[in-house]
């Protein structure tokens, strides 16, 4: 006997198999991918970014190098792949964006899509700030010599700036010239207007991509999804030629087995899987909804899992060849806070659900909705254009995509298995792919994956509560300078942390409760 919660009206909210076949054959208003390669590259561009290029190497460094690869790969198979396939399959079956999918399963689950939309928006804000920084560097790279290759002269012109000499030309240019960082998140330091212009450029590009939709963005991924691999290859070749590169690679691929008995290693590995696969953001559900109904989503999930995992190791190899060089050149290893990521998928995960929510008039064109979304996001991003913007980016990175993603992933699996019904889902799977899911997927969806996510979520919350919250600042007056100084957050920052992590996580139960009260009041007034 299987536990399936009552879900009246489900058959009326989802398209029948006959409707799916008809929609697949007929031309309708919903766009489609030109080919399978375009779809896979878009998913690759969505998944591979900050989590693979920056966060994964950082976690390897924090947890004994190669030792981190072991729990990461295990949890990728037990946690990441099952949820990835579930998102692909449910989006392909119901033919809607994230909010529409969960509302179709049950109106009380609309909060799952709203939570995904909020996380995508919050993370997209600071991701695009990173893009703005990259635009700044791109603009300033058309100089010879490059402005970050030498220290500037002091005011008297008699020597170099001491702050630059004590640190390095690269760090000085980033912290002092590019961002002009303050020494506290509480000290805004005013607006950095060159970064504002770069932000405006970045959001304009995003708006154009979203307005054009997958018809244009799908073609752009042939460049945007492949180019990072070429660039990383160039960096790898250059890194391997530097003195000390082999020392960095030796650290990366030499496991410290003592790290495997630490719960924090497994917790960080589980959370990293969500980052690396783009799970819980809503973007993968939206992308898969544009596929043909009989597309082999199992093959897609396996391909994306392999590509994502190999990319993480590939990016870490590049990073540690450079770190080995810097550790050899300077005895202190410097780990940068920069990262690269593809943004279109995150904003698509916001724009598409907004259309599902019907919060704007139905006669508003897609271009107006996209323009308003990007304009609002640009205004919010002025927070990161302050001289204290780096610390706000770090705050968003630490809390906007951690607990909310784990919560969303848990609710997604519960919704499909126990509310939509695992038997119905298996029948849908067979209709789309041609065969029912194997015993591995069955066990993962019903037991293994939800249990792993729940354990990670609980222990993550416990460890966060016990730890004092600190952040790193660039402070020339610090005793540890040129290393970043670790300082505690001000007390008022906990309100911001609740908004970043608590509000998206609570969107699911709060929406369900509000709807329940609304339905009860409506029935009472009838």
Helix/strand layout:
Elements: H1 10-13, H2 17-25, H3 36-47, H4 50-62, H5 69-94, H6 98-105, H7 110-140, H8 162-166, H9 169-178, H10 193-212, H11 214-224, H12 227-240, H13 245-253, H14 263-277, H15 283-288, H16 297-329, H17 344-357, H18 366-380, H19 389-399, H20 403-433, H21 439-466, E1 470-473, E2 485-488, H22 493-525
Antiparallel strand pairs: 1-2
Helix pairs in contact: 3-11, 3-16, 4-14, 4-16, 5-14, 5-16, 5-20, 5-21, 6-7, 7-10, 7-17, 7-20, 7-22, 10-18, 12-16, 13-16, 14-21, 17-18, 20-21, 20-22
Can you describe this structure?
This protein has 526 residues and is an all-alpha fold. The chain has one domain (10-459, 490-525): Amino acid/polyamine transporter I, CATH 1.20.1740. The chain contains 22 helices and two strands. The chain has a two-stranded antiparallel ribbon. Helix 5 packs across helix 20 (403-433) and helix 20 crosses helix 22. It is globular and about 80 Å long. It starts with 9 loop residues before the first helix and ends with a helix. Mean pLDDT is 84; it is low at 331-345.
CATH fold node name: Amino acid/polyamine transporter I
* CATH domain class name: Mainly Alpha
Structural class: mainly alpha
Widest sheet: strand ordering: 1-2
Count of discrete domains: 1
Looking at the overall shape, the CATH architecture is Up-down Bundle
CA-to-CA gap between the ends?
38 Å
- Rg, alpha carbons: 24 Å
Number of helices: 22
Helix content: 55-70%
Total strands: the figure is: 2
What is the averaged pLDDT score?
A: 84
The sequence of SSEs as H and E is: HHHHHHHHHHHHHHHHHHHHHEEH
- Beta content comes to under 5%
